[in-house]
Amino acid sequence: MLLKESITIENFEDKKFKIKLIGSEKDTEAAFTHYLHNYKKGVSHFYKPDALEHVKNFFEYKFPDEKISKVVAEEALQYLIFQQEDVPFPAPKNPGFKFIDLFAGIGGFRLAFQNLKGKCVFTSEWDRYSKQTYQANFGEVPFGDITKKATKDYIPDGFDVLCAGFPCQAFSIAGKRGGFEDTRGTLFFDVAEIIKKKKPKAIFLENVKGLRSHDKGKTLATILNVLREDLGYFVPEPQVMNAKEFGVPQNRERVFIVGFRKDLKVTEFEYPKPIKKKYTLEDILESETVSVKYYLSETYVNTLRNHKARHASKGNGFGYEIIPNNGTANAVVCGGMGRERNLVYDFRLKDFKPITHIIGEVNREGIRKMTPREWARLQGFPDDFKIVVSDAQAYKQFGNSVAVPAIQATAKKIIEKLNAI
After folding, report:
1. What's the confidence (pLDDT) of residue 152?
2. 218 close to 226: Cβ distance less than 8 angstroms
3. In the 3-class helix/strand/coil scheme, how is the chain assigned residue by residue?
4. Which UniProt keywords are listed (predicted)?
5. What is the pLDDT of residues 235-245, one digit of tens each?
6. Which domains does the chain have, with CATH numbers?
């Protein structure tokens, strides 16, 4: 090794390299992890300068009295390529295509595309807790705010598919058509800007079912106009896909938008058909006795019943719901009602002593919330997917995620179409 005697390789025991550039827009930590996972994939040069800077920053932080040369940083970086820790979901060794993952969350799109032998060459996500989960499972730290030019500048050329589950936002519709310029100030504009610059072969966008009626249909109409007319993509009519039809017992409807660059001469695309086998809640429930912390207090159960009764007296169907074992869960979403509309009966608990600060006694009716792992299964995440955050954050992350089986079924159709060109 060329490292100075006082700077030995043992100093790499801190695998996370949590060194930030204060006051800089550079995301050297994300660049560092992206470089390690892409050094053989033809895109490493996009990340190497800042990856080197990250390693150099690390040594300068550890050894403030030493002058760290570029040679030392280079040698350390090459060493680390072969010292990566194993991650639960590594990229395929011989990928068949490349994709990028925008608004990545905890990696639902990535799981689906990796299962089809795809290699993720760029990912972005702004939520700090989602980044922790993403890194724990894929070994990469996502880049941050995709609205910033500095973040967009990290995106490599030459990838095949752009994936994005962007938020639903209203457009100004300043012009008569509702085109590219009218989407400024929204996150779709940033997606469109990346598509315009990088020109991927295919795009796969996901959004809530309400996108179809949002702003009286103007939002979706503008999105389709931008993709078809301004950006030059063949985009068939978007389709509402339900997770329960693709291998998970969750009634979750989402709009899928698929597109192909027009020069590829793709003129038709068929979304996947529902699978024949149907799953029920029993297929995803915990096999072992669940902690008492997931059981509702008697006080809380009564509050939910009174709340539901008040709405029922007004003719509303709003309120909690207990899903039978042979039933299908409601959509898992952020917020309390995502859990309260997916309660279950579970009579295995023997010790009713509370381990959290609840009001009243633990109910004896067997009523509990689903666990974060059960929510993960409802979204199609495998059991070896690591949950490294608090329960509150885990519910939020899985509620915000995509249903992996529905994404993967559609992604398979996209890749089949690209392979046929």
Report:
1. 96
2. no
3. CCCCCCCCHHHHHCCCCCCCCCCCCCCHHHHHHHHHHHCCCCCHHHCHHHHHHHHHHHHHHHCCCCCCCHHHHHHHHHHHHCCCCCCCCCCCCCCCEEEEEECCCCCHHHHHHHCCCEEEEEEECCCHHHHHHHHHHHCCCCECCCCCHHHHCCCCCCCCEEEECCCCCCCCCCCCCCCHHHHCCCHHHHHHHHHHHHCCCEEEEEEEHHHHCHHHHHHHHHHHHHHHHHCCEECCCCEEEEHHHCCCCEECEEEEEEEEEHHHCCCCCCCCCCCCCCCCHHHCCCCCCCCHHHECEHHHHHHHHHHHHHHHHCCCCCCCCECCCCCCEECCCCCHHHHHCCEEECCCCCCCCCCCCCCCCECCCCEECCCHHHHHHHCCCCCCCCCCCCHHHHHHHHHHCCCHHHHHHHHHHHHHHHHCC
4. Methyltransferase, Restriction system, S-adenosyl-L-methionine, Transferase
5. 999 999 999 99
6. 9-81 (no CATH), 97-276+402-419 (3.40.50.150), 287-370 (no CATH)
Instruction: List the catalytic residues.
Output: 168
Task: Sort strands 161-164 and 250-251 into parallel, antiparallel or unpaired.
Answer: unpaired
pTM: predicted TM-score of the whole model, two decimal places:
0.86
State the number of CA atoms in the 13 A half-sphere of 314 facing the CB: 9
Burial of 10 (0-12, 13-18, 19+ CB in 10 A): exposed
| 60 φ, ψ (degrees, to nearest 5) | -65, -30
For 365-392, the pLDDT digits (tens) are 999 999 999 999 999 999 999 999 999 9
User: Do 367 and 343 meet the contact criterion of CB atoms below 8 Å apart?
Assistant: yes
User: What are the tens digits of pLDDT across the range 49-67?
Assistant: 887 778 777 776 766 766 7
Contact 396, 333 (CB under 8 A): no
